[in-house]
Structure formats: structure tokens, C-alpha cells
User: Fold RagB/SusD family nutrient uptake outer membrane protein from Hallella mizrahii.
Amino acid sequence: MKKIRLYIGVLCASLSLTLAQTSCTDYLDKAPDSDISDKDAFKDFQNFQGFTEELYNCIPEFDKGYWTNSWNWGEDELQNVGINYHMVYKIDQGDFWGWQSNHDGWQSGWMDRNGFNTGGDRFSHSLVPGCWYGIRKANLGLANIDNFVGTQEEKNLIMGQLYFFRGWFHFQLMQYFGGLPYIDKVLPADQELREPRLSYQECAEKAAEDLRKAADLLPVNWDNTTVGKNTLGKNQLRVTKIAALAYLGKDLLWAGSPLMNKVSTGNASYNQDFCKRAAEAFGEALAMVESGQTQFGLLPMKDYGRNFYSIDDNGKVPGQSADGSVTEAIFRGPLFNGDWNVTNWGLSKQFCAVNSDLSEGGVWSLPTANYVNYYGMANGLPLDDPQSGFDPTHPWKGRDPRFYNDIRFDGEKIFKSNDIAKHEVHTEAEISADPAKSIRYADLETGGMYRSVDKGSRTGYLLYKFIDNSCNKLDDGYGWSHHFLIHLPWMRLSDVYLMYAEAAAEAMGSANAKVGQCPLTALEAVNKVRARAGVDPVAAKYASTLDGFMSELRRERAVELAYEGHRFNDLRRWLLLDKYPYTIKTSQEFKRVKCDLEHPENNEVSGFTQKVILTRNFSEKHYWLPLKKSDVSIYPEFKQNPGW
Assistant:
């Protein structure tokens, strides 16, 4: 347990707030003169808040922790051949040990890094050590709360943050490793941890207690508090009542999901009690959102990309509307690099996988064809529904608008720059006769210029959800002058609507169920997310049964939250990770017939079929990550996960 003791048994000597070193100070400013000593750490709000805000620095940047990154470990994504050090490759091979730093020679993962340091750059932050360190720090703060002298509002704000992070850090550990000891007191540094592992649901109950306390103490909007007015307009990254309620609901929904219910009770179905309580927590948050009492809302589809990136906006942290009046990001971590255009160092070049010298990156994240097929039709029906209108000779016509936002397909215009001629593969005469042969347009048909197992797309598609269309070598959208920034949220409001729908439907056995304070039924919550995207409601033939509704709910989660890091944990908790077809990754094979360059969605193809690239051979043990051998060898009560 040496690693665990390092983080929960030893407090960092420096208690100064390090967020001021980052470029997110416009959103999470430290209070003036809040650097503190051990002696004065808890005496007043200025210092206690400075102590507390280090907890934000325990949150890793899962999307930017390394030069290039991997956070989608379901059946949703592939990387190019030859890239064998990222976690998605290791997961595909069944190597779940790969999350650990001693199994990560490149230190490219975001779960466990050597040299964890809350005051360091993005490379020095990782999830597991950050969670243990943060739990210790939250406990230390709560143990000293009686030493605080200040107003009740100030005390509530400090306690609310401490309870939130203690619950949040435990939840993050639980969802990957299962039930663990719940550390809710300060442990002496010289005392061995002897606490037994709790069941998942026992651990979730304790996290729920902390998150409930946090929700009761935190404000909806820090700008509306007396304290928050000191950093008015710079409080967007601070945890709120809505975030606490949303994570309370998520903690309970996860505890009630088939995997967690099975390991806790032996029953591999949903636990209705946990689901009902989850729906009540989500409903409490959504009732405030729906009545206009909060700053949170769904961004219009034209601004959908603002959830994930900013461009030509001085590095503004994504997650809200241009004027800041509407925020969709429920919870975001801080940025750890104050460098101008930090995303330019690798992440922004991870998606334009073009088989030519127009690709500046060497690692590409590619959407699998099997996953792209979850994007149904604009009429709301899945592709395989006989009434959907899907035509395999015109496979990109009439699709869900999020398909056109997230995915680039054959024939779409990729490069706008006029400086394209020297990069062309075909002659000027050939291009004049058939403009679609220009490398300006995505050539993703089987054998096309953009297709390659190592230097282009392996799957027949490109992923553009997190980049602007100009992010390529010629148009230079990720260049220094644009300060292009990708920063993905840990939770968005659309996720809360969908989790509420899942919890309410499973708790009450119907898509028409309404739980707690929420004014929406489960069906209405899903349809609200679809309406924002311009997709028709869930069809009556699916909504009329629980199984039918859940199949569409799961597909909706796959599409709305695509590539944001949720799929792996969803498949796990639904007990689908080792089930076909969730074990395969495919490419889309086809040949062009006609290409409409003005309206590529009308393109005609032939031979539209999928080809299996790989099959993941998982078993029951793969539902949980293995704990470190050094941790489980310390005392008998701290057992390794089964099969590892």
C-alpha cells in the first residue's frame, strides 16, 4: 500500500494554491494573497479557500495529459497501426494492466503517472494519485473546519467543496476498480491502512452522503454569493449545487446499474431503489434548470462545438456560449499549461488523418464504422429500422445532424486553402475532368488517398467533433495566431438529461415515468436532447416498452456523448463489454459511384459493407481494472479484483 499511503497519508508540504500558474485564472482565480502556511491554513476564508482550491489541481486533463492522448476505450475508436503505447491499444489487447505507470513506459496515460505534483504541468497530473491525495486533503480540511473563523456562507462554501471532492474522488476510483475502503478521516502518516474493501454499493452509499452534503451547502452560481463577487465572472470552474446533485445522481445510477448490482447483490439487473434515488437527485437539479433558476442550459446546435473547443477567442475555456450567458458544462477541470495554443502540441493534430504530407500528426484517433452506425436518421430511427429510410447506396443522406457535426465522410471538403496544387496526387487534367479527385476532398473510399492503416484513416471516416474544419496544415486553424483550445468537460447537461431518463425509466418501468421534482418524463428528457440536435423524438414503437426505450436511450448516449470518454464505462456497467457486437471494431468499405461536391451527403456509393478490423477477446475479469500488485500485497483485506 506504499502508493496509497503516499497520497492519503502524507500531506504536501506546500499548501499554496497553484491554479494561478494556469491559463484558466479567468475562470478559477485564487483569492488575493491566499498563499498559506501550515499554521495559518485554516484560520480564515482567504487561507482556507486557498488550501481547498488545491483540490481542483488533483483533477487530471484526460484529453491533454500527454502530447497525444487516449480516452475512448470502448468499441468507438481505433488508432493507427504502429501506435501501441496508448491505452486504447492496450485495452484492445486485453492488457488492462496498462493503466499503471510501471506498465506505461511512455507515461502517456492519464490514470497513473510518475511524479504526481499538483503544482506541476499537465504531464504531472493523473487520476489515481490525484484521487488519493485529494481524499487526504479533503479529510484534513474537514477535520479542521472548527478552527475556521468567518461567516456562515464562507464556511458552507468551504465545507461544500470538501465534501464534493471527497465524494467525487472516491467515485472516480470506484467506477474503475469497484468497492474500496472509504477514507473519511485523516489517517496518521505512520499508520498502515487496514480498512477492508467495501462492496460497490456500500462505497457508493458513503459517496452519496458526501455529495448530498455538498449539494446542500454549495450555491447554484458563485457569482451570486457575497464571496463570489470578489472574483465575479471568474467562477465558472468552481463546483456548484448542480454539479453535486448531478454527481450524486451518477453515483447512485452507477450503483444501481447491472454490473455494480451484480457484484454487490448477485442480481445482474438494475436495482430499482438506487435508480429511483438517482432519478430524484437528477430531477432536483433539472427542476432548477428547467425553471430558469441556473446558468445552465443546452447550447444551440450551431454552437455545439463550443462545448469542446474555442478558436480565435484568446484561449477561452470551452463549455459555455460566446457571451457566457448559457453554460452546458456541468463540471470541468482546470488547465495546467498557461502556454499560448497548448493544444497545438499534438491533440489538435490527432484527427485530420490524411494520407499525405498534409498530415502533421503521427497519432490519429479514428471513429470505427460500427460506432458511426449508431448515428441514425434525422427522423429519429436507427439505421437498421425498416422504416428509417436508410439507403446503403446513399449512406450519408438524411442522417442525424450530429453525424454531420462529428464525422467527416467521403467527398467532404477538407481543405479550403488555395495552396493545394503542389500536394495533389492526380494531374491537373485529371482533376479538371473530375474535381472529386482533388486531395482537397476526403477520399475515403476503399483504396482512396485518405485510406491507410498507418498514415490515414483505417476505418473510412474521420473524427472532427473536437476540432474546427480549419484545423489542418494548409488552413492552419490550429496555428499560433488562432489560439485553438480543446478542453473536454467531465460532465455536460445533456448527459444529466440522459442519465435522468435512464434512472427514471428503470426505477418505474416505463419511459413515461416522472420522478421527484423533475417536470420531465424519461421520454421527454431524451427528446429534449434530440430536439436540440434537430432529431425527431423517439418513435412510439420504441417508447411503448421498457426494452425498446432502453435500446434507444443507449443509442442516444452513444451519439450525444460520442468520443467524450463515456462509452467504456457505459458498456461495463451495462454488462455489455464482452458481448457481441460490442467486441468488434470495423472499417467501412465502399466504392464511389457519383460525388456531389456541393452536397456530399447526396453522394452515391456501391458495395457499402463493413470489414472487421479486430475482435476484442474479453472475459468477466475485464469488467474491472486490476489494482496494483504492490497495493494488494500489503494486507489480506485489500484483495485484488477477480481474475487478475
